[in-house]
Amino acid sequence: MNEDEEDTVVQSIEDFFEPLTKAKLFTSISGEQSWTEIGVGEVTVSIEPVAFGSDTSPNSRVSGRLNRTPKKKRIAKLVMVALDETADILMSTPIVLDDIYSTQEGAILVWTDPELGQDMACSFNVQEGCDEIVHKIRMYQQEERGARASGRLTDGEDHHRHKWTASVENLPAILDAVGAYTRDFGWYVRDHGDYVGDLVGLFEQCQASRDTEHMEMVGKILVALLQTPFNTEGKILSQFVSNEYVDRCIDVLQYALGKRDKASGFISTEERRASFRNPCHLSAALQAQVHILYAAGFLKDLFPLSLDEGDPMCSSVLGSFMLRIKFDIMRNICASPETLPKQFYAIISKEKSSLDEFYDLLGFVNDMTKTVKTSVVPLDDKEGLLYSLIEKDVFPFLRKALDVSLSIYQDELVSNKAPTEELDKAGRAVQMVADTVNSCLSVLPVAREDLLLDAAERPATCTLGLLLRAATTLRRGAELRAVFDAVQSCCVGLIQPLYATNPTVAVKKQEILSFWVRGSLGASDPPLFGVMTTIVELVRGAAGEGRLPSHGEEIRIVYGLKLVQTVAEVVEERLCSSLSETVDRAALFTSLGLFLQRPVRALANLQSSIISLVSTFFSRCNTHLLKLFQGEQSIVSVAMELLLSNPQRNNLLFCAVGHLFDLICKCVHNEKSQSLLMLQSSTRSPYVHELRNEDSMSRADLGSLSTPRACEKVLLSLHDVYGERMGQKLPFLAHKVTGVLHQTPEEARHQDEETYSIASTSERQLSEYEALATEFGLDVEVLSATEPMLDISQEISSIHSSSSDEEEGEGDATHAPKHSRSDDADGQATAIGKDPSFKRQRTEDTVA
What we know:
61% of the residues lie in helices and 8% in strands. With 848 residues, it is of the alpha+beta class. Strands 6-5-2-1-9-8-7 form a seven-stranded antiparallel β-sheet, covered by helices on one side. Strand 1 and strand 2 (36-54) form a beta hairpin. Helix 16 runs parallel beside helix 19 (463-473). The model is unreliable at 8-14, 52-70, 152-161, 310-314, 681-707 and 782-848 (pLDDT under 50).
């Protein structure tokens, strides 16, 4: 016999002595596709008696003493013991009476563990072993179900169960079972589907006979069933929200919580149902579902901590139930060929409409889309609902609602100086339209095509144009924020992996931007021009009257600037020429430059927003946009004058101005580095993309650069005018500007290669922070770039002792830096580094 035959014989002998129920155990978290192997062992069904309490009934007292004899009941468990020498118990889980056990491929037993909340599987070696275990499970379930149905007690089965039926005499035992027999009582309620309804009926009987004592007991029992651990069982919670009992349950629960009349907060069923106005004229069946949804929401409000977790990603049982009802209602509404189209057409077909005619319908549609957007459900389900909604002409309805609301809003502004109810209602309507557009485009980016078709058909009153018109009309921050979010969703959108590589989505975004920047054929002004002129009017109006902008005007200016900034960030190179012409024609930067010259501290935040807009335009490094910054009276010249004329620099405004000129220096540096790249061979270094650091230039940007370089031309003009003053006021900035202007393309490329080193980058950023903090008057401990990072803790601990010694030895030199490390300016510049954004003032200058 050869070795192969011997191995076969040995294997056959081992298989012969293996147990019939040998299996591999696997587990998986519910909802996941991957399985994790736990081990290999023998599976058995173990039935054993378990003690669960003592006999505390009145008849159990013997000689005046309570009989503490524990009772027992049968518990069946599915057990797996490892077959190796350790004989570890790999699994021991109770067998439940629900039909959760199923077989796959004949030899795989699959179920969901009710305690762990995980999917389990046993893969048996042979089908006979699987059949044997399944047979034992079925026999146990059949016996237990029969015993419970007939009311028999088996081997110490809980003898209290026959005392848990809903009746007045059993209420003390039921109330005791809620705390003493939680597990068994939970099973009992779960197995009796009408138990909550029986308790509600018992409460109403006691209420009719004015038996307040037992009414209180029933209320306590129902409140306890909505607490942990009962509220995690779906079969129990579903009894509270059934069509037949939900309203009656809420009345009992309000009584139990002390809400027994209007003065104490009781809300009747009629009042709860009256809150839904049925703008879509839903059928009676759908109205019943809506009432169930409203009742479930009211129930969750009564017990917010018990019925809803704080984490929205892990919804409670009631939250999942409500979400399922919502989606069922929305599917039925969207599937109907008449429900929504009929209501939409009734509004669209009218030449003149009032807010009251579509306000409730608009709110209903807004709630639908917002629910779809925020729900944690598969993306396919969300897209399917929104596809159906768009097919039902929701965008034409939104356009009509937006047009009418803006017209009413403008009329109210003209006729009434004080806010009116009609003005508030029109503003909320515009906000709901913007939220609906945002929700649709966030989930379904391809819906931009419908907005573009609408713009091509009616450019004067399309939704895209009306959104920018709303940005110039509205007065309140919440409404303007909603419009701004809608604009962002049109041209920027959310980061979605499924659409990130879809070129069609990017093309549609740029087509929307083209409509805003260029307008339509035959139109005198593009929609973005109206936003810019509104900003100019507000700024010049406040400056001409010599006053500060009001709070409402400041909000409008800020959101207008944010909107223009968003467009400038994402617009393509081919549209930069049109954007530059629009800005120049509206005299936007000219007006903003005059606004920057006002030395009023209250305007600092608004002026910072202006500087942020200028930084965005300059960062594009486009020749057409950079023409806006050329000339002695350009806005960057005004910003430089602002930086040099005011000695107070430790505030947000001067931080923004400092970042602007730091950005200009980086753009010049990147411009030179990229120009050398164009002259080199087509073979690129694998580090080129990373070496550009914070630069956002691409090959498309390079095509718009002319010779001489556009960014360098702007910085050179600033240096010619302000170079001497920079050397006196901001020596470090002057040093950086001079260095960047004198830098050759080869030196720029070499510096990029050096900054690829992580250590070099960290060292430079630390020194830049110290220099910038010193320029802006912040008292910080300067850490030398040459010291190792491990000495930082020692340096911090020695601050107090070293500072006290220095103060004693300084004498009259009270103006010297408190923590300066060197009196040599050149040594200080070496320690701080050669490439920070701002240069620390030299010690000699400070002392002088």
